[in-house]
């Protein structure tokens, strides 16, 4: 049997930090005929919480019985007051992408999916404009235009939610979707919505961050991918990056330079998510990259 044919899982966990967690997890893997390929852990001294990600491979010709593994791990989780998930790496996560007029992040994600860099199944693209319809059609992805106004915002979000449920997606990607989601929707899909904000948060929140940055004469501009919460641009940060600018860089040049950063930051964030590298640590994240 080729190693690529073997059954593989990813275990993620968080719990109060006590002694023996790593040893107990390693013993569990060995006792269930699994060999560890990757292991990352972090103990937060401020919160006294422990975080761990383990990728494991089946030994021999046996496939992993995921239901049995989950049930077998529950006593350990209960004993240690542990939150855990076990994922089958053979399953391709389903996502839905929301976008407005600026499509550079969407173009980048779709290209990376096409060439195999990003192993996801894009179920649909939703937009409040028609600009991305041709792009969606070229990739044979269903496109849904949902116009959003002050008057119909609640009804529009119901339509979006219905599509999320229809396509049974795991995560929602806001690829420069320039609408503020309601508290109800943000809470309902807590830690399942990833947004790309075109500034290095917490600087320059809200609208027109590049104009704000230009006005302040900054020497670095950046982008931030974060989980969406009901507090605008305040969600747990997943990934960030920057690029240098100077006193001669115009506002429009900042926007052009920033788009490159936005693309790579959002890609990394989505990749970390589907590879199960992100664990929530209260208002922050632990990212095993």
**Which class do the helix and strand fractions yield?**
alpha/beta
Q: Report the portion of residues in β strands.
A: 25-35%
Nearest-angstrom radius of gyration? 21 Å
Distance between the termini: 29 Å
Structural summary, described in words:
It is built from 8 helices and 13 strands. The chain is α/β, with parallel strands linked by helices and 289 residues long. The chain folds into 2 domains: 3-88, Alpha-Beta Plaits; 94-287, Formyl transferase, N-terminal domain (Rossmann fold, 3-Layer(aba) Sandwich). Strands 7-6-5-8-9-10-11 form a 7-stranded mixed beta sheet, sandwiched between helices. It has a 4-stranded antiparallel beta sheet with strand order 2-3-1-4, covered by helices on one side. A two-stranded antiparallel ribbon has the order 12-13. Helix 6 links the parallel strand 8 and strand 9. Helix 3 (104-114) runs parallel beside helix 8 (251-274) and helix 7 crosses helix 8 (251-274). The protein is globular. It starts with 7 loop residues before the first strand and ends with a strand.
């Amino acid at each position: 049997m080729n190693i690529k044919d073997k059954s593989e899982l990813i275990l993620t966990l968080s719990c109060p930090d006590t002694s023996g967690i790593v040893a107990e997890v390693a013993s569990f893997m060995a006792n269930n005929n699994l060999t560890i390929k990757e292991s990352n852990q972090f103990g937060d001294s401020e919160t006294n919480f422990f975080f761990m990600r383990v990728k494991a491979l089946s030994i021999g010709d046996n496939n992993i019985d995921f239901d049995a593994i989950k049930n077998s791990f529950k006593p350990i989780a209960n004993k240690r007051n542990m939150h855990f998930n076990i994922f089958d790496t053979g399953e391709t996560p389903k996502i839905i992408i929301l976008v407005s007029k600026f499509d550079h992040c969407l173009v980048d994600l779709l290209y990376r999916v096409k060439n195999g860099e990003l192993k996801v199944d894009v179920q649909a693209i939703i937009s409040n404009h028609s600009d991305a319809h041709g792009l969606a059609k070229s990739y044979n992805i269903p496109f849904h235009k949902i116009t959003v106004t002050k008057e119909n915002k609640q009804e529009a979000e119901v339509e979006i939610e219905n599509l999320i449920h229809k396509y049974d997606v795991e995560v929602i990607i806001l690829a420069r979707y320039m609408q503020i989601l309601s508290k109800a929707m943000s809470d309902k899909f807590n830690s399942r919505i990833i947004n790309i904000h075109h500034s290095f948060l917490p600087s320059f929140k809200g609208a027109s961050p590049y104009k704000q940055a230009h006005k302040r004469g900054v020497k670095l501009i950046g982008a931030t991918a974060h989980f969406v919460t009901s507090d605008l641009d305040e969600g747990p940060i997943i990934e960030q990056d920057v690029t240098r600018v100077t006193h001669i860089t115009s506002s429009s040049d900042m926007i052009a330079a920033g788009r490159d950063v936005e693309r790579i930051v959002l890609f990394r964030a989505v990749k970390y998510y589907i590879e199960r590298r992100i664990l929530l640590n209260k208002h922050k994240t632990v990212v095993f990259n």
